[in-house]
């Protein structure tokens, strides 16, 4: 029997890698897509004939009920969210609605239409926020530092609550930062690799950034979607941290990206207060021992390899 999967956030970075993975495993993939005046399918252009799109929005529960009815899913991956932390201070209510309440809308749709479907919630290391304990693991208390982080904490606990209240197979994957050539252009890794490529090609002269001292545990999105799938293949639903166990400053990221094309970052980077956040998450470093032991999950791409892959991809895109 062909398995059915419903992915929300199909047009995003993770949606595209997860769709590739599930298609390669023989799944029929349904993708929830928002109506936009200009369709933005850049990440899934190559898959668009293999995915069945269903129109809908996390804010509109009727559309989610409809999506679950049409797709009749064995597995639901809730990846949709307002996912850019900086924007969450500008649109805190919209972020709370999509990133927080949207999770309840999706869980309710599953509970009402297909309660035995397995559910994955895209939780985030941003829930750890202010450093309480390092490395951060499943039992580390949350202390979110942005409206986005606060909304994700709500999404995490409502997922746990539906598992405990209704005995649903619902998992929360607490994923640390993961990147790829398909990363949105405003996130710091892609902003840097795109700028490095532009500067190298003579299309841009400087790169304006905020806080270079923050530390992140950065992995490759292609490795992380494997963990999402593994979480839904277990005997019992549970929550897992997914991380690399290494942390690097933004300055290190910048250094590696510029030196990969033979440039010195100090000649191009300008600090701009506009990109400094009202409250910062200073240090993220994850301990994913539980995922390694229980899921058998391993990462394949390291940090330096990831940064170089992204710079090379941006150089290639811009050279065209
Ligand atoms: P992206 O920003 O690339 O993708 C977000 C997706 O959500 C897009 O497809 C977007 O659609 C969709 N979306 C936004 N709002 C709505 C809505 N109201 N209704 C339906 N769809 C909506 O994020 P990523 O792929 O990087 O991340 C996937 C998930 O994982 C997110 O929930 C994110 O918060 C979480 N996460 C990400 C991490 C990372 O490092 N990448 C780490 C931890 C968690 P559209 O194209 O229409 O805007
Ligand atoms: P983050 O990712 O907030 O960790 O959330 P982002 O790449 O936006 O920021 C990482 C760090 O870089 C610092 N920074 C800048 N960030 C951006 N975007 N632009 C800049 O110019 C800049 N200068 C410095 C930030 O202050 C921050 O410390 C990502 C998202 O994918 C979330 O959805 C996800 O939940 C978390 O990762 C885990």
TrEMBL record:
It is an enzyme of class 4 (lyase). The gene is gmd. Catalyzes the conversion of GDP-D-mannose to GDP-4-dehydro-6-deoxy-D-mannose. Residues 6-310 form the NAD(P)-binding domain. The keyword Metal-binding does not apply. Its EC number is 4.2.1.47. The keyword NADP applies. Keywords: Lyase, NADP. It catalyses: GDP-alpha-D-mannose = GDP-4-dehydro-alpha-D-rhamnose + H2O. InterPro entries: GDP_Man_deHydtase, NAD(P)-bd_dom, NAD(P)-bd_dom_sf. SUPFAM superfamilies: NAD(P)-binding Rossmann-fold domains (SSF51735). This is GDP-mannose 4,6-dehydratase. Its cofactor is NADP(+). It comes from Paenibacillus odorifer. Belongs to the NAD(P)-dependent epimerase/dehydratase family. GDP-mannose 4,6-dehydratase subfamily.
């Amino acid at each position: 029997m062909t398995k059915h999967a419903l992915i929300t956030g199909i047009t995003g970075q993770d949606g595209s890698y997860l769709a590739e993975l599930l298609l390669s495993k023989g799944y029929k993939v349904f993708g929830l897509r928002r109506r936009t005046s200009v369709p933005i399918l850049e990440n899934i252009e190559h898959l668009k004939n293999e995915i069945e799109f269903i129109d809908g929005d996390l804010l509109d529960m009727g559309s989610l009920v409809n999506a679950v009815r049409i797709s009749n899913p064995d597995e639901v991956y809730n990846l949709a969210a307002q996912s850019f932390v900086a924007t969450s201070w500008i649109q805190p209510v919209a972020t709370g609605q999509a990133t927080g309440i949207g999770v309840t809308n999706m869980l309710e749709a599953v509970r009402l239409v297909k309660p035995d479907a397995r559910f994955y919630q895209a939780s985030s290391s941003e829930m750890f926020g202010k450093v309480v304990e390092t490395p951060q693991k499943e039992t580390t208390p949350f202390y979110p530092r942005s409206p986005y982080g606060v909304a994700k904490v709500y999404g995490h606990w409502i997922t746990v609550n539906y598992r405990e209240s209704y005995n649903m197979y619902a998992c929360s994957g607490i994923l640390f930062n993961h990147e790829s050539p398909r990363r949105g252009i405003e996130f710091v890794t892609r902003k840097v690799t795109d700028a490095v490529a532009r500067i190298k090609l003579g299309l841009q002269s400087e790169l304006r950034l905020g806080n270079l001292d923050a530390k992140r545990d950065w992995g490759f999105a292609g490795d992380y979607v494997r963990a999402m799938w593994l979480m839904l293949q277990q005997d019992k639903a549970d929550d897992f941290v997914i991380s690399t166990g290494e942390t690097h400053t933004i300055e290190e990221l910048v250094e590696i990206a510029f030196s990969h094309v033979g440039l010195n970052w100090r000649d191009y980077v300008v600090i701009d207060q506009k990109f400094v956040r009202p409250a910062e998450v200073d240090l993220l470093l994850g301990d994913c021992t539980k995922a390694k032991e229980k899921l058998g999950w391993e990462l394949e791409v390291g940090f330096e390899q990831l940064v170089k892959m992204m710079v090379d991809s941006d150089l290639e895109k811009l050279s065209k």
